[in-house]
Amino acid sequence: MVLKLYGAAISTCSQRVLVVLREKQVPFELIEVDFANREHKSPEYLAKQPFGQIPYIDDDGFILYESRAICRYIAAKYADQGTKLLPTGLKQNALLEQAASIEQSNFEPSAYGAVFEKLFKPLLALVPDQTVFEEHLKKLDAKLDAYEVILSKQKYLAGDQITLADLFHLPYGTYLAQAGSNIMETKPNVARWFKEISSRPSWEAVKTQIKDAA
Ligand SMILES: N[C@@H](CCC(=O)N[C@@H](CS)C(=O)NCC(=O)O)C(=O)O
Q1: CA-closest residue to ligand 1 atom 13
Q2: pLDDT > 70 in the chain, percent
Q3: Residue range 114-126: average pLDDT?
Q4: Distance between the two ends of the chain, CA-based, in angstroms?
Q5: How far is the CA of 7 from the centre of ligand 1 (A)?
Q6: What local confidence, expressed as pLDDT, does residue 9 receive?
Q7: Alpha carbon of 154 to ligand 1 centroid (Å)
């Protein structure tokens, strides 16, 4: 049975999984959850994902949620096909976990905050606050100074090979530009890195899928 992803093309967490499925050349079916009608809060959905969040996968009866855990599962299950996204070896793997942790604790909170303020609030009929938007960007800018140091010494966040940790940045990194911020282009090595990962055919395909779903 083909792997089923219950999510939505416009959801950043689903996009994180979509790009990994494409990098690993895994056949899949995206089952769009009716977010607007709160399908993700229905008893049937909560039976699979108790937090009522998207996405989750059903891989031949194996149910898994949390987008980054799903990505790790796909990269490990399909280790021998597509792009190698999980390094082997104790230290390389520890460096991947370090990079993945950097994304979750130093990138996502302020990137999400800025994107939520400027892009998502209007979709929810809420009024964006420019000051809050700028505060998030200021915090993110300070974090990206550290990214710049790391990326001045190596090609990717966990070393010289691309890993899941790099791809995890794509959804919010891309939405930041749509929110009107050029923050991912302001530091030479961050800009070089982000341009490279965001021009991958896998991400181009996800962006097309997002446009088609809009
Ligand atoms: N840590 C979770 C977060 C999932 C999440 O927050 N999904 C959003 C969409 S991107 C959602 O379902 N939000 C609705 C809600 O939390 O009620 C993951 O990475 O899968």
Answers
A1: 53
A2: 100
A3: 95
A4: 28
A5: 10
A6: 94
A7: 31
Q: Could you say which of 3.40.640.10, 3.30.70.100, 1.20.1050.10, 3.30.1510.10 is the CATH number of the domain covering 90-204?
A: 1.20.1050.10
Tokens of 206: 């996800």
208 pLDDT above the threshold of 90: yes
Q: Tokens 């070393």 sit at which residue? A: 159
pLDDT > 90? residue 68: yes
Residue with tokens 């395909």: 205
- Side-chain-facing half-sphere of 20: CA atoms under 13 Å: 32
CB 128 within 8 A of CB 136: no
CATH code of the domain occupying 3-84: 3.40.30.10
Alpha-helical segments (H) within 116-162: 121-123, 130-151
**Could you give the 3-state DSSP secondary structure of residue 106?**
helix
ipTM: 0.98
Domain ranges (residues) in the chain? 3-84, 90-204
Q: Find the 11 Cα to ligand 1 centroid distance in Å.
A: 8
Q: How many A from CA of 56 to the centre of ligand 1?
A: 10
Ligand 1 pocket list (CB less than 6 A): 11-13, 40, 52-54, 66-68
3-state DSSP assignment of residue 48: coil
For ligand 1, what atom is nearest to the CA of residue 41?
Answer: 17
